[in-house]
Amino acid sequence: MAAPSIASARPALRVRIADRLDDNINGTASGGTATTMTDTGDIARLPTSPGSLVGSELSIITGTGSVESAHVTAHSKTADGVVTLTVPTWTAPDGTSTYEVHNLGARGFTKSQYDASINAAIDSMVDRYFTDTDSIPWGVEVAGSSAGENQGFTRHEYPMPTGYNYLWGVDYLGVTAATRNSFSLSDTYRAMGDATARTRLWQGFQVSQTGFYEYFALALNEVGTTTGTISIQVQTNSSGIPSGTQVTDSPSATITGSTLDGRTRYVVFRFDPPIFLTGATQYHIVLLRSNAVDSVNYYRWAEDDDNSYSSGTAGTYDGTTYTAVSGSDFCFAVFAASSLWIPYSRRHWEYRQVGADFIRLGLLPPDGTPIRLRGGSAIAEVSDETTNIPIDVHYVEAFAINYLLSGRVGKSSPDDYRAGALIWAQNYLARPRPTRSLPPNSVHVYV
């Protein structure tokens, strides 16, 4: 069930709330200087004597000068209706600058107070509204899934990625690997991005069937604290090494490097759209990082130096030349494009905290299989002027007015609208709050 949404960000909500309190003027400036803003239109309705807008807060919302606020020190109007508001100092607005005037005559509320009331409305609903989210954070590691594996480990606990407030589904990809060199065959590691001799690593591979391929799982870890991103390319072949040319219509698949840590795991790179590969044809997975070489903070790819994989070889790149590493292969798995995700039964997974947050899996599919987590990310306070707020606009309006007028922020306006607006807000809030039921099997995530 998708979260309800509205196309309203903070500017539209402030206008709705402030209008109820007769504390709003907004428009687009016609110009200004480092100490003034000029405009015509609605702002001209207020008398300049005794300076109706003196003491009010003038805020530039978008365009030149955004987002700045200043209190009005002088208010004047020419015979042809051009209003000039004087402020102490700011960036000179121009014809692209939209503005709002609040705290009219120093009686209403400031922009920051309206924003605080909107965020309070959001906070009141964080356990009721969710943005559905899913991710493919890793692939499973199972011992003995290929002939010759003898290291005998099976991992059942995996790190919980950030961004979830609730988790309600764990799925595994319902296709087997098209080709693979299992992580359980690894007996060493090779660094990537620690020196100019290893700005990239690569691994040759082949698939038996012609078709589209979407998921590439690489057994990686991190040394130090990395920043930036890591990505893979699939390149064509040139005499047994990467040609430097990516497969047609093959973008780079990228992840944030900081999602890795010191413990090796399958990191899943997804090509969207999938890439087309021809069966029994040599290709190469090329691993690269966005940041410059760093001898302290870098990545490592698990390596099998027993030459177990017969359809390609491992290699390095020094910024100029691709060079094969004789007798070695990196650990990886390649999966065809598929939307077949098989849900785990609830009795086969659990979320728990064991010094950190983990997902524990019982029944495991074959080595390297991508795992998808499904859950909800709670809405959060906004700090910009463009993010739409996924709560019913009437609820935000009612809650914010009640929040302002009940004295929880700023000071209330003494005008005649106070009592009527407060009663209106209280009546609206007497109705049941909009809620969203959590799907079955939901668990709260303490990340």
Write a structural description.
The chain has three domains: 97 residues, no CATH class; 83 residues, Elongation Factor Tu (Ef-tu), domain 3 (Beta Barrel), CATH 2.40.30; 243 residues, no CATH class. With 447 residues, it is mainly β. Helix 1 packs across helix 3, helix 2 packs across helix 3 and helix 3 crosses helix 4. Strands 12, 13, 15, 19, 21, 24 and 25 form a seven-stranded antiparallel β-sheet that branches. Helix content is 11%, strand content 37%. A hairpin with a 5-residue loop joins strand 6 and strand 7. The N terminus is likely disordered. The chain has four helices and 30 strands.
Count of individual domains: 3
How far is the N terminus from the C terminus?
Answer: 23 Å
Q: Assembly state here?
A: single chain
Rg, Å, rounded:
30 Å
Structure annotation, total helices? 4
Query: Mean of the pLDDT scores?
Result: 87
Structural class: mainly beta
Fraction of residues in H or I helices: 10-25%
Question: What does the largest sheet look like?
Answer: 7 strands, antiparallel
Q: Which stretches of 5+ consecutive residues score pLDDT under 50?
A: 1-5, 144-151, 412-418
User: β content, as a range?
Assistant: 35-45%
Count every beta strand, where a strand is a DSSP E run of 2 or more residues: 30
| Shape, per Cα inertia axes | elongated
